[in-house]
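BUG: 3D viewer hangs when loading the predicted structure for this chain

Environment: internal workstation, default settings.
Expected: structure renders.
Actual: progress bar stalls at 90%.

Input used:
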Amino acid sequence: MKDKILPNWFGHDCPRCGHGTLGKLSYVKPKKAWGYRCGHRHCHKLLLAHDFHPIFFTGAGNSFTSLRHQAAVLFCAVAGVSCQAAHLILDLDHKAVERVYTNVDIARARYVQLKEKDIQYGGKWQDVEVDEVDLGKLTVVLHSDGARAYKLKLPGMVHCNVVHKKKKVKVNGKVQWVKPHYTKIYTLKLPTGGTMQVKRNMWEVTGNMLDTLFWAS
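Structure tokens produced before the viewer hung:
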């Protein structure tokens, strides 16, 4: 909760009944989990600390995976450990590990799509769409899809890209899946001198590679 991975539900309305107020976070021994109890007299239901979370999940019986183990899987996913390796390192069921990894990818994609609306177009050294701008006497950063026409090597043009689809590659004769890179930071050398950092995000879910074209006219 200090790292803002889990929300603080204390004092909020109960999402189950909609009338009561959730109390302080406490440990519930029967469920072996931390949660918030609704104070309404007709509810009193328990809300676990990771209920309604985009990455963590709840379960019962054989499908139960503790929040501690799920957090360990999350750390492996963020550190770049493969899903197969995390399953063996943590000695957890592969379905639970795959579910956390899938939820992380979905959460990243949703965050990138949400931040797209904050991007401003126009001005000097700003982001513009390649098929929606006149390049005459402008110095801009262009965005395009993976079309061949946009990948041509031209003077004064530098290509950067992000990949938002899993790719199958061969490493030492073995086939491996490479995870997508939704965001990547490039350092470009400007023709006027100096450098410029460009942060590439996933722009549209088409399954293709996105190119950023740096044009100095």
